[in-house]
Write a structure and sequence with these properties.
The protein is α+β, with helices and mostly antiparallel strands and 393 residues long. The chain folds into two domains: 186 residues, Beta-Lactamase (2-Layer Sandwich); 182 residues, Hypothetical protein af1432 (Orthogonal Bundle). Helices cover 53% and strands 8% of the residues. The protein contains 18 helices and six strands. The protein has a six-stranded antiparallel beta sheet with strand order 3-2-1-6-5-4, with helices on both faces. A hairpin with a 5-residue loop joins β5 and β6.
């Protein structure tokens, strides 16, 4: 094999190593899903734009019982994007499925160029599943099969290397299979950790507001409102997803406020009001300095700040107020207007909209809310109404 092809193989392997390192670095702060892995890994190795690599992949996994799950094919689109096929189910008794299972049982890869084993390219095509061939959209001239080990075993098939598939290509595919197996196992474990994290967040949010009425529904609604606002502002998906479960932490500091104050039916006296205004600071302290809770901390400390600087606890003004806090302020105020409290009755959706437009004795929309956010709110106010009503069925 030429030095140039060796260098290309080395570059692909280095790309996989860099991806692994980045994934490990980011694992605590990014959504680490299988789709993310496939997009990133396949994009490093697939051919195109002068890179050596296969034109397509077929990826399939095996259940503990030995049954093959439906697989998917992947290839480049427009020289850059990875395009994914629909699920492709294999007849377990077909020669293709049997060969895949046999490949999984081997330590080494299986490498085949059509000219080494078949009289014509046409004869070679009979070996492959029709749906795979249809997705690839070109005659298959070679392939390499490699086993994937890990919590979920499987096989990956790479199709149509330029010219001949080589042992160097096989080594890169083996490296890729190891990356997929290890990172996928890690991904599954991270997802379980993420579920536990979110459950803990929800449990803490419920505990903090246990003294107040309608606690569970309130925190769920605020999550949904905040997610809708963030999504309709065109914010990144990661931000939208994170605020959609972090918003419920806005009043986490209330766990340090006596229930006699939280449930007082009349106005608070000066001392009680002063203590109540400390709950954002308490929330910030409770959430600590973990990077994973940065957005929740921004929400807890800033959701009572006002656009004109008249809010609390730090009298932040304008864009100095964290965006997540500005978003949750709108969500929390809307839900407070719609909800019964010990000191007030609930308002209808239209009455709440009137407060957002014209204000009342406590709320001045022009001074209290981010004007851009207020505009987005009025565009999607019907969604807020649907969210509120969906929890009152």
């Amino acid at each position: 094999m030429s030095d140039n092809l060796c260098e290309m193989s080395l570059q692909q392997t280095l790309s996989l190593l860099q991806l692994t390192d980045q994934a490990l670095h980011d694992i605590c702060c990014k959504r680490f899903t299988r789709d993310f892995l496939y997009q990133e890994i396949f994009g490093k190795v697939l051919g195109g734009k002068g890179r050596r690599g296969p034109a397509s992949f077929f990826l399939i996994f095996q259940e503990e019982s030995g049954v093959l799950q439906p697989g998917r094919a992947f290839h480049m689109k427009d020289g850059a994007l990875v395009e994914r096929s629909d699920e492709i189910s294999l007849d377990p008794f077909s020669g293709y499925a049997v060969n895949l299972l046999e490949a999984q049982a081997q330590e080494e890869v299986v490498l085949v160029n059509w000219a080494d084993s078949y009289e014509s390219i046409g004869d070679f095509q009979a070996y492959f599943h029709p749906a795979v061939k249809n997705f690839i959209g070109a005659p298959i001239i070679n392939f390499i099969i490699c086993r994937i080990s890990g919590a979920a075993t499987g096989a990956i098939v790479a199709f149509n290397y330029p010219g001949r598939a080589t042992t160097y290509d096989a080594e890169v595919l083996k490296s890729m299979a190891v990356v997929i197996g290890s990172l996928q196992t890690m991904s599954d474990e991270v997802q379980e950790t993420e579920k536990a994290f979110r459950y803990t967040i929800e449990a803490l949010a419920r505990a903090c507001e246990a003294a107040e009425e309608d606690t569970g529904k309130h925190i769920q609604r605020v999550n949904r409102y905040a997610g809708a606002l963030a999504a309709n502002m065109g914010l990144p998906n990661d931000f939208v997803e994170t605020i959609s479960f972090s918003a419920q932490m806005h009043d986490v500091g209330k766990i340090k406020i006596p229930a006699t104050i939280l449930l007082k039916p009349g106005p608070l006296d000066d001392a009680e009001a002063e203590l109540m205004r400390k709950h954002p600071i308490y929330g910030q302290q409770i959430l600590g300095d973990s990077p994973r809770l940065q957005l929740a901390r921004d929400i807890a400390i800033a959701h009572h700040e006002n656009w004109d600087g008249s809010g609390y606890p730090y009298q932040l003004k304008g864009d100095n107020i964290p965006l997540a806090g500005r978003i949750v302020k709108v969500a929390d105020v809307y839900d407070a207007l719609r909800s019964n409290r010990s000191y007030k009755n609930s308002l209808s959706h239209q009455a709440a909209l009137s407060v957002f437009r014209h204000g009342d004795e406590r709320i001045n929309p022009a001074k209290h809310f981010d004007p851009v956010l207020l505009g987005v709110f009025f565009k999607i106010e019907h969604i807020f109404d649907k969210i509120y009503e969906s929890f009152n069925v």
